[in-house]
Amino acid sequence: MIKRTLEISRDPAYLSVSLDQLQIKREDHPPASIPCEDIGVVLVDHPQVTYTHGALVKLAESDAVVVVCGKNHLPVALVMPIADHSQVVWRVNEQIAVGKPLRKQLWKQLVQAKVRAQAAVLPPDSAARRKLLALARQVRSGDPENVEARAARVYWGCWLPDRPFRRDPDGDDLNPLLNYGYAVVRAAVARAIVAAGLLPSLGLKHCHRANAFCLADDLMEPLRPLVDDRVRRLSLEGVERVDQQSKASLLELLSEEVAFLGERGPLMVNLHRFVASLVRCYRGEDERLAIPQRCK
Fold it and tell me: In three state form, how does the secondary structure of 213-237 look?
């Protein structure tokens, strides 16, 4: 079953729980009731939303993630469940024991997949696409030549067909939309990591001491072009701000069909299979990561 994604942003709301159902009460609206076990992500983007302690506890027990947004409509915090995986201690020990050579090989695969996914976003006959595919073949273990950054310069220079664009997380233009989409995917990836019994803070490449989601940032790299493609399409439709329409469209990414090991299925479902592939690599059962890809 595909877990539901809830966005609460239009009106003030009161969230509580009763009989394992999330209760959503809003003025001038009939109360809504949703089984907590059906919920994957709750994204809250209204300053007058209040919660009971019981609602947060039950959502966490149901493996749901609560994403809290700030004044700029971008997520500022995640409320994550603590893993109750039956083998969580073994999983964490395996994660800690992963050697540097394996981490570098896995990072190489993630960078290659990201660059190829960026190429797939660009027109099939473009020189930039051919350049990106050539760069993907040049990535070595650990990406010591920083092919990822070289590919980014090519990619963002051609990402929009009708005007120049500079990717800057602190910039304006379409950057807030990209930031919002990345944050949604990041939350879903972090949820899958915790559900698998892994620690999201122990990354492969990302290792900032203040980042509690280093592994999520590693794994979402090849998924960023999914967000890029959606934001570009929104821009072509005249939607260029973080508003109700754009947020709804970006949240729909979690239910978008992606290709995974020759099959098609929702991104949120395949994120769990993606992390399971990582666990097999950690345990020495596989050498290659299975990574979700945009359907052609």
Answer: CHHHHHHCHHHHHHHHHHHHHHHHC
Mean pLDDT, each 10-residue run in order, the chain (296 residues): 86 95 93 94 93 95 91 83 70 92 98 98 95 98 97 96 91 95 94 88 88 93 98 95 93 95 95 96 96 90
d(CA 201, CA 272): 17
List beta partners, residue 50. 14
Q: How many domains does the chain contain in total?
A: 2
Torsion of CA 230, 185, 170, 167, to 10 degrees: -40
| Residues pairing with 13 in the sheet | 49
Residue 46: name the closest of 5, 75, 13, 16 by CA. 13
pTM of the model: 0.88
Residue 22's domain comprises: 4-79
